Amino acid sequence: MNKKIESLVDELREKLIAMRRDFHRYPEPAWTEFRTAAQVVRRLEELGYDVSYGEKVIKEEEMMGVPAADELARRQRRAVEQGADAEIVELMTGGKTGVVAVLDTGRPGPTIGLRFDMDANDLEEAKEARHRPFTEGFASLNEGAMHACGHDAHAAIGLGLAEMLKAVQDELHGRIKLVFQPAEEGVRGARAMVTAGVVDDVDYMLGIHVGMGHSPVGRVVCGGEGFLATSKLDVTFNGKPAHAGGEPEAGNNALLAAATAVLNLHAISRHSGGATRINVGTLVAGSGRNVIPARAQMEIETRGATTELNKFVKERAIKIVRSAAAMHDVGTDITAAGAALGGTVSEPLVKKIAKIARSVPGCTTILERGPVSGSEDYTFFMDRVQKQGGQATYLLLGTDLAAGHHNAFFDIDEEVLPLGVKLLGEVVLQLSTAAL
Amino acid sequence: MNKKIESLVDELREKLIAMRRDFHRYPEPAWTEFRTAAQVVRRLEELGYDVSYGEKVIKEEEMMGVPAADELARRQRRAVEQGADAEIVELMTGGKTGVVAVLDTGRPGPTIGLRFDMDANDLEEAKEARHRPFTEGFASLNEGAMHACGHDAHAAIGLGLAEMLKAVQDELHGRIKLVFQPAEEGVRGARAMVTAGVVDDVDYMLGIHVGMGHSPVGRVVCGGEGFLATSKLDVTFNGKPAHAGGEPEAGNNALLAAATAVLNLHAISRHSGGATRINVGTLVAGSGRNVIPARAQMEIETRGATTELNKFVKERAIKIVRSAAAMHDVGTDITAAGAALGGTVSEPLVKKIAKIARSVPGCTTILERGPVSGSEDYTFFMDRVQKQGGQATYLLLGTDLAAGHHNAFFDIDEEVLPLGVKLLGEVVLQLSTAAL
Amino acid sequence: MNKKIESLVDELREKLIAMRRDFHRYPEPAWTEFRTAAQVVRRLEELGYDVSYGEKVIKEEEMMGVPAADELARRQRRAVEQGADAEIVELMTGGKTGVVAVLDTGRPGPTIGLRFDMDANDLEEAKEARHRPFTEGFASLNEGAMHACGHDAHAAIGLGLAEMLKAVQDELHGRIKLVFQPAEEGVRGARAMVTAGVVDDVDYMLGIHVGMGHSPVGRVVCGGEGFLATSKLDVTFNGKPAHAGGEPEAGNNALLAAATAVLNLHAISRHSGGATRINVGTLVAGSGRNVIPARAQMEIETRGATTELNKFVKERAIKIVRSAAAMHDVGTDITAAGAALGGTVSEPLVKKIAKIARSVPGCTTILERGPVSGSEDYTFFMDRVQKQGGQATYLLLGTDLAAGHHNAFFDIDEEVLPLGVKLLGEVVLQLSTAAL
Amino acid sequence: MNKKIESLVDELREKLIAMRRDFHRYPEPAWTEFRTAAQVVRRLEELGYDVSYGEKVIKEEEMMGVPAADELARRQRRAVEQGADAEIVELMTGGKTGVVAVLDTGRPGPTIGLRFDMDANDLEEAKEARHRPFTEGFASLNEGAMHACGHDAHAAIGLGLAEMLKAVQDELHGRIKLVFQPAEEGVRGARAMVTAGVVDDVDYMLGIHVGMGHSPVGRVVCGGEGFLATSKLDVTFNGKPAHAGGEPEAGNNALLAAATAVLNLHAISRHSGGATRINVGTLVAGSGRNVIPARAQMEIETRGATTELNKFVKERAIKIVRSAAAMHDVGTDITAAGAALGGTVSEPLVKKIAKIARSVPGCTTILERGPVSGSEDYTFFMDRVQKQGGQATYLLLGTDLAAGHHNAFFDIDEEVLPLGVKLLGEVVLQLSTAAL
């Protein structure tokens, strides 16, 4: 592999860890990554990238599952209090916390895209002696939020890679696009960036995730597989209250509509084409024991082994919800609260990367394929790039975990940071100079 | 009371019994009363009435629960074989077996309508020694049909009354309208006669029923009360079959639609305005264990203590059925198979009749009010006459019963026949000459 | 009427108003009437009554819908801060806020019971110029609580009556029992007092309510009718969570059980014996969109025109809930959260009281019967006394209302206070001296 | 391959076709294969086999989906009329139409079992010019029955093989067991033979099916895969009727139980372990529009990619049915109407057979694996033999089809008959002489 990359990474090591811990200390859940994104912007601008963010890279009407305006405002203020550049944050108002940085070499060559997600989980971080972030003083300072899925590491790797690529800029061809995405949790953010067109010119698209499954640093899966397509729907039934004893017939019972929907949703036909899922995860209905329930709210999700299978379930689900509402003369709102596609990584790209990885010291186990767990909205990037003729894949980087994802004791082996930068640096370098 | 009526009735007695037994021997269920109606027509024409029947008195599109064409044709042929006038029967093709006879006195006076129903039940008559119609040789000759609700007596009383009124014609004023209605069972026939306009000119409307409750001949209720409005609906869901193992998603499951409808129909809100009922009496769905059911058929009925209450239930029921069909992408047909209104008899008319009845020898117990059991489509006649400013009531004539209505051993005390003619004759006479 | 009573009432007028306003200022919802009850105890003891309260008059295991222990404790502390006697309040720990006071004349005669309820509603009182309690400075000082059903007036009348009866003690016979009941709202409290035996020795039982319907002071209904029996049930389904995408089969879905129960509860058969009601007023289920719901909670109520009709619905409801739980292998808890019986007032007592009322100046309109609205757990007292051979009734005392019951602008015409005391004083006097 | 077998098959060719056509002409659906089985018995006895049938090879309590006694009796009489030996048929009374024939060589060696099914479909055969069985005069003479799944060919191959094996008896070792099974359609018959112990001593077990998929004679799949485990359940709910208008509360509504079951059955959780299916294929409920339905009957089937997956669905289904019944206080009967297991063929045996098949002239395409479509109760034989340490497989023999299975125009290329006998003959010969 490239010797410069190899030596630069050693210098970057401490910086990478510091960045990851900084992000870890200030975790920001979906669409509120104001401080994180502002730090990313500042650093990328310092490095000399051409940086876009806010409404230029986020299509507002495609944002899903956005918090209420007052919460967004509160988080925006907090970000500034916690050191974010107020001017940058201002341009991210409304949760438009995506960032895209371009390095144009000016030389002919492919456009290579890399996506890094930045958001934290809605989870209170453990404050116990056995939890290293706590004992070493970089545990979450934000109540109810924690980086328990490694996106702090992803963002740090992204910034480290940005620095690395600048350092080897003269050896690169084509263009490099670094995409920092908000709101991957709940699969809410990718669609708004993809429909804003940020990867429309990309030839090779890469996504990464650290620590999927319990595997040590050095284990690399070059092509994740088994992405479940999914749709998250928020449903509200709006009926009419009435006194349940005095005049029950005057009500339009939102709970009867919801209960009918629940049963029929679960009764959606299995599909001979492959695995599907449906869940009504929550239902909250009614205002009092003696009142015909006028309102019912449900959080639903559908899944499918492919985009088409998920579409089958989703379309039936929507029809069931609307018909259940009509049955009881209640209104209904159905809002998309999240979505991810199915998809398959590009075989030739996987093989290329596997070959490159074998040349990278520290990459001790190279697998072409390995399972992702569940749904990832990176699939929107993958789908867009593949549909326009490009290639895409998703890499899994092993790292020992202190506890599973989304657990209050989650922690990673930070050696994955320099190894990730080294591997991605070499991959970008090789792809940029290979014939398309 | 009128002496002529009193003496004539004694002469009529044997004839009344003979007519009732003739009808009893040839029972014809709803819309197939070809022989019965043809006998009625012939007799009324012999008596000199102005007789209308067939499409003149039955509005085809308002006929409910009509048998299939081939069954109608079979019953029509049988009627001729059993002595009906072929030409008359021909004009009743399609089940238009209603008859209306008018006696116009030429003198000023009110128009008095009387309704008699003629149809039999779908029931095999008992063939046992303890059943008098069997031992005396006038049990049903028509398989699967029996006069088990006394409509044979009603028709006989109607014809006896026709003869009686002719005999006292010179003492009458105004016009008398005798309405012989098919298909009272299942409340299917009245609407088609009423919407044909047959009582649009009636000032006083009378209906009768023999033997409601177990009470002896001589007991007379002048105003029935407690009519339940009802709607009978036939529902079909038409989906799409598919192999349940191989490709279940290709089906549109009519049974899931039906099951959803069943639960939600029964869950229709109770009403603070009074009693309501809903029943899904039958459901037949599917063609085989391993096929997604493509078809489901239900027989439903709704009821209400008033027309409005029934309408409330019926309208919700229809919405539920249609929405359940939409939910599962199946088609649906909803056909009215029967209907009766609620209603209240006219107080002044009840009082008048009670007073007249007290003058009739043999009427030993006179009650102004008494309960009818369930639904009666006579209510369509009552409603129409009352809405145009006339008065209407419904009389219950006591008669000892061998067994309850709709029972294979049902039989009446035939003394109710002459008493009925005597009472109705006197009522008509008095009403026709009283100031409106 | 008794002259002494008449003149004493005029003296009591201001005191009655002051007491009512004091109670109004410190409203305490069900089972937290610590201050109210302590004031009642102190006053009754001052008057020389034999007073019992706490566990002597409340059977703990029959208390329904009791708030959580910490809330009870908070309210108990607040009562003391707001002037209640700490020692008295201590004996009411756990919400045992019922009080019974006995005046034993020593002379032979009947035992006469009177029930007054004391609890407030969970409602924020209006703070607007058009609301007299606000402008005159006696609006609620307790956040989220308000006397919006007149129980402040009931308690004041009870205390005023206590004083009055003491003043005419020498003219009375038998024993007088004044019962101050907590938790009438939600029909939660009566059962615990009745089963504690507090009216087991009562011959004549009286209950009152002010301002039912909009009628002026002076209108008196001597026998309320139309009590709906009711059962309030809290239902919890306890299942097992599982990841809805990864391993849905491992879950036991509490929401499916609840939805099945909801539909089938509403589908409980109508009853030919009279009006019934069922409502699932609230349903809260699940913890997250992608988790099989492990828990679902419902607040249900059943009603019936009679105790038997309510029992029919309640028993079917319990069977449905248990079977729905079994169907989905989830546990279930069903807790009684409230109950009232149906019932009919005692005809002879009603007539007696009507006669007495006619002699009371100010009682301008005396009706023997009038409708109560909905359910009242006073029916437990009525039922117990009638079952042991006594007589019972329920009086409605007219008073102009500023707004309907349970409305934030509810207010009464306080002239009902002296009139109520006068009427009840005279009734007790007459009943105590009449032959049993 | 063995030369004797090769030459003998040519002699057998006409006989095989005649036997298949004879069976085709007299098709007998499940448990009524009296004539077919009697012919099989007679022929096997003629050949000198040790033949068992009736209760010796069919365990009565494990028979599923047996027709009513009167239908069995009618079919039994017809079989005799159509030429069956009355004495043999007598021993098959009750539908015990299984036959087992043993050829014991007396020489050490394995026991080889082969299973042939014999039953026809409930289907009216096409009577049109383009249907060869019709034009060549061997179409079904039994109304409503047709060999539309090739079991006529299976039985003929079994008898042909029996003759062939006798001819090469001296070259064989061990024991050969020919099992002729009734009632494969609806997967009703295998369990009763397996539990009777007929393959408890078998080392190698073979099953065959002709014409799965559209492939020509000569194509052979040596190991079928994809067996779906399945359970067929007949469910009856027994409630109590009541007049829906007059006294609805007196009923126990079997249709409400059934509708609740239908929805919840379809809502059984998907399983992460693989494909499952549930279907309520038919539902028939109720006796009349105005009667609370007292009876409801459902035909259900569950499926799973493995025996365990099917068990998961079946057990949930049974719990749902029982709970739905309990919910509405109705009784329930659940009867097993059919069952098949999942399963996997034995890899070493498949390889052995594939090798043998490659030596057989006419076997032009040899595949080790190929998909079976749906469920086969042969899996009971396979499972039993494998569980006791033996090996089992299932062969698919290509043959051009005139129309798909279970189609009124189904017909085969009869050249599969001699090829089948040749292949099975050689396989048995080789297996019998190979070291176990």
Quick structural overview:
The structure is a homotetramer of 436-residue chains. By secondary structure, chain A is α/β, with parallel strands linked by helices.
Could you characterize what this model shows?
Four copies of one chain form a homotetramer. Chain A has two domains: 3-226 and 342-433, Aminopeptidase (3-Layer(aba) Sandwich), CATH 3.40.630; 229-340, Alpha-Beta Plaits (2-Layer Sandwich), CATH 3.30.70. In chain A, 35% of the residues lie in helices and 23% in strands. The first copy, chain A, contains twelve helices and 14 strands. The first copy, chain A, has helices at residues 3-25, 34-47, 69-81, 86-90, 132-135, 151-167, 190-194, 254-266, 307-327, 347-357, 378-387, 416-433; strands at residues 50-53, 99-104, 111-117, 121-122, 145-146, 175-181, 204-210, 215-225, 229-238, 276-285, 295-304, 331-340, 365-371, 391-399. In chain A, strands 1-2-6-3-7-14-8-13 form an eight-stranded mixed sheet. Chain A has a four-stranded antiparallel sheet with strand order 10-11-9-12. A two-stranded antiparallel sheet of chain A has the order 4-5. In chain A, α2 packs parallel to α6 (151-167). β10 of chain B pairs antiparallel with β10 of chain D.
Q: In terms of topology, how is this protein built?
A:
Four copies of one chain form a homotetramer.
Chain A: H1 3-25, H2 34-47, E1 50-53, H3 69-81, H4 86-90, E2 99-104, E3 111-117, E4 121-122, H5 132-135, E5 145-146, H6 151-167, E6 175-181, H7 190-194, E7 204-210, E8 215-225, E9 229-238, H8 254-266, E10 276-285, E11 295-304, H9 307-327, E12 331-340, H10 347-357, E13 365-371, H11 378-387, E14 391-399, H12 416-433
Parallel strand pairs in A: 3-6, 3-7, 7-14, 8-13
Antiparallel strand pairs in A: 1-2, 2-6, 4-5, 8-14, 9-11, 9-12, 10-11
